[in-house]
Amino acid sequence: MATVPLSAHETHEKKKAPPVAGVLPVFHERWSPRSFQDRDVSPETLAKIFEAARWAASSNNEQPWRFLVGTRGSETYQNIFESLVEFNRKWAGTAPVLVLGTTRATFSRGGAANRHALYDLGAATSYMTLQAAALGVATHQMAGFDPEKARTLLGIPAGYDIGAVIAIGYQDDPAKLSDPAFIERELAPRERKPLGEIVFEAWDHPMDLE
Amino acid sequence: MATVPLSAHETHEKKKAPPVAGVLPVFHERWSPRSFQDRDVSPETLAKIFEAARWAASSNNEQPWRFLVGTRGSETYQNIFESLVEFNRKWAGTAPVLVLGTTRATFSRGGAANRHALYDLGAATSYMTLQAAALGVATHQMAGFDPEKARTLLGIPAGYDIGAVIAIGYQDDPAKLSDPAFIERELAPRERKPLGEIVFEAWDHPMDLE
Fold first, then answer.
1. Residues of A in contact with B110 (CB under 8 A)
2. How many domains does chain B have?
3. Contacts of A60 in chain B (CB under 8 A)
4. Structural domain of residue B79, as residue ranges?
5. Is B72 exposed, middle or buried (0-12, 13-18, 19+ CB in 10 A)?
6. A106-160 pLDDT per residue, tens
7. Is there a domain that residue B16 lies in?
8. What CATH number should be reported for the domain holding residue A46?
9. How big is the CA angle at B95 (ends B182 and B165), to the nearest 5 degrees?
10. A55 and B163: CB-CB below 8 Å?
11. Is A195 part of a structural domain of the chain?
12. With contact defined as beta carbons under 8 Å apart, do A119 and A62 qualify?
């Protein structure tokens, strides 16, 4: 394996997107590492992270999000871990906390289908990840897991849809990753589409904002 | 109509959720008004709001979000407005900007269905609303519109799913709202479930974080 010259801190600095004047730094500072320290995340810190999630907007203020939190050594942690695809099992077990995001698929009043249930879960989870970043806590959301396996292992009722798994912990040195491919990803620059590819004044007519 | 004693500023102060030490203030300060000033939102400000959206996390870094932006007087604005349900037409026309959030339903590489397309759009949109709040710009997301009418009027292809409409502008006094029911909502306290109803260590077993 090639020498990895960067520490956790140096990697974090390198991963930050370029700041933009007037834009909150937290959007550019949040990223998704795979190398996590042994260090636990305290209940007080988790409370702050979920406090942010509480205040997300939701359709009809339904707040459909429900988070299942597994801390290392717990049965919930083990069940979430077992639902991961092999690729993610290679690194996610170093994170001290694994969360499964679920969302109520119908409105509590009236019972109609809530077509924004996953959309609102995505919002609440993004609040979590931003608040974590503000506390120096790293998060990594994963789509790579078997949602039906997770449903069975964790006993999630049919009326709830499953979103993503979120690894939470403190970022560690890239060199501690088991797989050279992970180290490469850990050090690769973050990439995003320019505004011209995501903001339009009519379909296929980019808006001139830059 | 009863006298409304609160100005836009007083209403905003009253709407803020109680701050929590260590939690970024922006989560508690963002809320969704219905009364908007005539004042336009500059392209520079919109660029900052969408810059935040760029950096949301997404499954496979697909960045599936595409935003259609209507500024007052434009055809896009009119088309988004016409897709709203009557309830929202009563107030949303005062906002200088109406955005329709859409999301690519398949992965660009391989073409498989992206089951997180709406989830990721919800995340990117929440970044927008937080960044707007940080700039003193108000946003109000709406589920109350006809997505198929919006699709037809705006020419959105079948491969894209439709999320929410987002009104963007500067908050105005509640008294300027046309309907007493809107004024009442504008002044009502924001309510959220306690952590014990959204964070669990096993299904139906709340986590002790408070």
1. none
2. 1
3. 143
4. 24-188
5. middle
6. 999 999 999 999 999 999 999 999 999 999 999 999 999 999 999 999 999 999 9
7. no
8. 3.40.109.10
9. 85
10. no
11. no
12. no
Q: CB A121 to CB B119 under 8 A? A: yes
- Render pLDDT for A74-117 as a digit per residue (tens, 0 to 9): 999 999 999 999 999 999 999 999 999 999 999 999 999 999 99
Cross-chain residue pair B68–A201, CB shorter than 8 Å:
yes
Contacts of A72 (CB under 8 A, 6+ apart): A40, A96, A97
Q: Does the predicted interface ipTM exceed a cut of 0.85?
A: yes
Residue B164 within a domain: yes
Q: In what order do the strands lie in the sheet with A160-169?
A: A138-142, A160-169, A97-104, A65-71, B199-202, B205-206
In a domain, A12, yes or no: no
Supply the DSSP symbol for B60: G
Residues in chain B within 8 Å Cβ distance of A122: 116, 118-123, 126
A62 CB neighbours in chain B (<8 A) are none
Structure tokens at A137: 């806590």
Q: Does residue A137 contact residue A169 with C-beta atoms inside 8 Å?
A: yes
CA nearest to A20 within chain B: B48
Tell me, letter by letter, the H, E, C secondary structure of A67-120: EEEEECCCHHHHHHHHHECHHHHHHHCCCCEEEEEEEECECCCCCCECCCHHHH
Q: What is the mean pLDDT of residues A7-13?
A: 94
**Residue A73 corresponds to which amino acid?**
G
Q: How far is B197 from chain A (nearest CA, A)?
A: 8
The answer to whether B123 contacts A122, with C-beta atoms less than 8 Å apart, is yes
* B3, pLDDT greater than 70: no
Instruction: Choose the mutation target among B54, B116, B141, B185 for the interface with A, i.e. most A CBs under 10 Å.
Output: B54
Question: Distance between CA B91 and CA B98 in Å, rounded?
Answer: 12
Q: What angle do CA A16, A21, A24 make, to 5 degrees?
A: 60
Q: What is the pTM of this model?
A: 0.97
